[in-house]
Design brief:
The complex is a heterodimer of chains A (126) and B (131). Chain A is mainly alpha-helical. Chain A has helices at residues 8-12, 23-52, 54-62, 64-92, 96-125. Chain B contains four helices and no strands.
Chain lengths: 126, 131
């Protein structure tokens, strides 16, 4: 019971209500800041490509800068979304088991959708 | 030891205020955008699968009901973007005075509405999405 090998800090870490440090909070902000320029660039581009049709959209993605931006955006979207949904689940789902299951599900689904969409961009680009 | 933890006051007893309504809207739009991101995935998947799949995708998006969903999605996006920036200012320690909170809140709503209307005016100016 009296684990003297642990430092005072190690004994209390993780005991707060959040069960972790500021890592999640910081990553949520970093991904948010990263998405501001990406979204402001992507929306007008998407509007232009979606009214100009298939060939234009393909050509647009084949530009290396556009492909880079789109891949960064897709990755950040699913990362930011999984962090956000995690907080919502932690706040409203009170059963510990269901909480862990739904957070795991959200994380796996985000990875799946992120990989799928990025792979599609690469297929068009290559 | 196992005393129940204190509960926050129940939301139902509060009169809705611009501060609380905008706050919950940030969550609602965030969750909606997460679900709506599947539309973006569908767009790249359709593009990568060829012209036939893409025309199928565009035909679905041109339905009036899809426009309705996309309109909501656009508003959610602009709202979450502007209110997210507002949150970042708070994180940096700015804009906590009640006056600023009300002002930035109205500004967020105004920006989201204007940007949504502009986006859809542009789309309708060109009639529709094309294949």
């Amino acid at each position: 019971m009296n684990n003297t090998m642990k430092s005072d800090l190690a004994k209390v870490q993780g005991l707060g209500s959040a069960k972790h440090g500021v890592g999640h909070w910081k990553l949520q902000r970093v991904s948010a800041i990263g998405m501001i320029p990406l979204i402001l660039w992507f929306i007008p581009s998407l509007m232009l490509t979606i009214i100009s049709g298939y060939n234009e959209a393909i050509l647009w993605i084949q530009n290396p800068f556009n492909a880079t931006g789109l891949i960064l955006l897709l990755g950040t979207i699913f990362f930011h979304a999984s962090l956000g949904l995690q907080v919502v689940i932690e706040d409203y789902v009170h059963s510990e088991g269901l909480k862990i299951i739904s957070i795991t599900f959200i994380k796996l689904l985000s990875i799946l959708l992120g990989v799928l969409s990025i792979l599609c961009v690469l297929k068009i680009f290559l | 030891m196992n005393r129940p933890r204190p509960l926050s006051p129940h939301l139902q007893i509060y009169k809705p205020q611009i501060t609380s309504v905008l706050s919950i809207m940030h969550r609602i739009t965030g969750v909606s955008l997460s679900i709506g991101s599947i539309i973006l995935v569908a767009w790249v998947v359709a593009l990568a699968s060829g012209l036939e799949s893409y025309s199928y995708f565009i035909n679905i998006t041109n339905h009036w009901f899809s426009h309705l969903i996309l309109f909501g999605f656009t508003f959610a996006l602009y709202y979450h973007l502007s209110n997210g920036i507002r949150h970042l200012f708070w994180d940096a320690g700015f804009g906590f005075e009640l006056k600023s909170v009300y002002l930035s809140g109205s500004l967020v709503l105004f920006t989201a509405f204007i940007m949504t209307i502009s986006t859809w005016s542009f789309i309708y100016f060109f009639e529709n999405f094309t294949i």
